[in-house]
């Protein structure tokens, strides 16, 4: 089976056929850096990170652009309320998002452009739209004339007579309330740039069209983002880009929300969980597991219990890999199974992919307990390959936690120390000195080491799965 993706615009699964053979081009709407990132923000980054990893695994050269919106009404409002320069406010929270992506194992995008660095491309795009009769200037503002684009609404499926742009009261000069702003006239105290229509700043929708085509060309493969962006943001991007003569995105993908008590997680509703706060409860890899385990198009209702269950599920995976390492030998990256590949080819179905991972863990544990070491080693190698595609490889995360390449050395040192205590315990049991044996086990337990007596002798794991 070849890769099939759900296209929001077509409302159907479509076989992925890239514009250029061997290359996959993706634009993902990144953060509007107005505050500290919460789990709802980073879900999109993680979902498209899995897509990017799967495309790379299957042989594509992936070009992924994830922008930073660093000029926006919300940024200006919050910076002013805090008494800080808008640019400093934006830069501070851009670093917070970068930290969160890094903590959760997101691969770096091919490029991460800022909106403020691409005003030239935005002004050029506006000029093309005005020349084509699809935009007009009025009182220093510039608007896209929705009525000039008959296919407006094709992405979201909304009827033209029922649409609202959400721009508040109609500004001066707007001809139709359905028209949306491309360029905003300068206001006192706000940043502005010179244009043929007067000084001002760009509208949000214009920014992404300009940055996407700047780096991926007039026609590219996939445009992604959160479900809340379908209208008006992505609808407006599509309209203005096509009206300007660009083919723009061939596939539109949208991840669902993270909700709390049935409501979308958002700062305006006050129902957010920041990444730093959640990482006080679970390790980064466990939060990543929690966020990528559901299908990207399924709403994820947050709960502490569900987060704990996800952490426990990941612990079972890494404990198996470490058991095989300790009892059989080093676990290299193996091959993914056909079932795992079929799951990801079916619109990145991570629930089915992880079900295959857990079935392999179950089978591998049974083989290890039965003394079939070669089978257990092969299963552990397959688990590393499959979790690697999902950004969850236990060995990689253990090395990261230990400071990169020092992971194996640290574990070997720990293994030597624990092994010496286990040897003392084994001798005590042989001498029927059970009090001494129990004391040694209690000592290990107090240090966070879980001991399991097996037919092949005692094995150990750390309680946190490290």
Automatic annotation (TrEMBL):
- Describe the subunit structure: Monomer.
EC nos:
6.1.1.16
Q: Looking at the Swiss-Prot or TrEMBL record, what is one Pfam family this protein matches?
A: tRNA-synt_1e
Binding residue positions for ATP: 267
List the CDD domains. CysRS_core
- Its gene name is cysS
Q: Which UniProt keywords apply?
A: Aminoacyl-tRNA synthetase, ATP-binding, Cytoplasm, Ligase, Metal-binding, Nucleotide-binding, Protein biosynthesis, Zinc
Q: What is this protein called?
A: Cysteine--tRNA ligase
Organism from which the protein derives = Actinomycetospora chlora
Q: Which SMART domains match?
A: DALR_2 (SM00840)
Q: Where in the cell is it found?
A: Cytoplasm
| Top enzyme category | ligase
Cofactor(s), names only, from the UniProt record: Zn(2+)
Look up keyword Protein biosynthesis and say if it applies. yes
- Find motif ('KMSKS' region) and give its ranges: 264-268
Q: What is its main location?
A: cytoplasm
The segment(s) forming the Cysteinyl-tRNA synthetase class Ia DALR domain are 339-398
Q: Which reaction does it catalyse?
A: tRNA(Cys) + L-cysteine + ATP = L-cysteinyl-tRNA(Cys) + AMP + diphosphate
Read off the InterPro entries from this record: Cys-tRNA-ligase (IPR015803), Cys-tRNA-synt_Ia_DALR (IPR015273), Cys-tRNA/MSH_ligase (IPR024909), CysS_C (IPR056411), Rossmann-like_a/b/a_fold (IPR014729), tRNA-synt_1_cat_dom (IPR032678), tRNAsynth_Ia_anticodon-bd (IPR009080)
Q: Name one GO molecular function term.
A: ligase activity
Tell me the organism's taxonomic lineage.
Answer: Bacteria, Bacillati, Actinomycetota, Actinomycetes, Pseudonocardiales
Cofactor binding remark: Binds 1 zinc ion per subunit.
The record's listing under Gene3D superfamilies reads:
Cysteine-tRNA ligase, C-terminal anti-codon recognition domain, HUPs
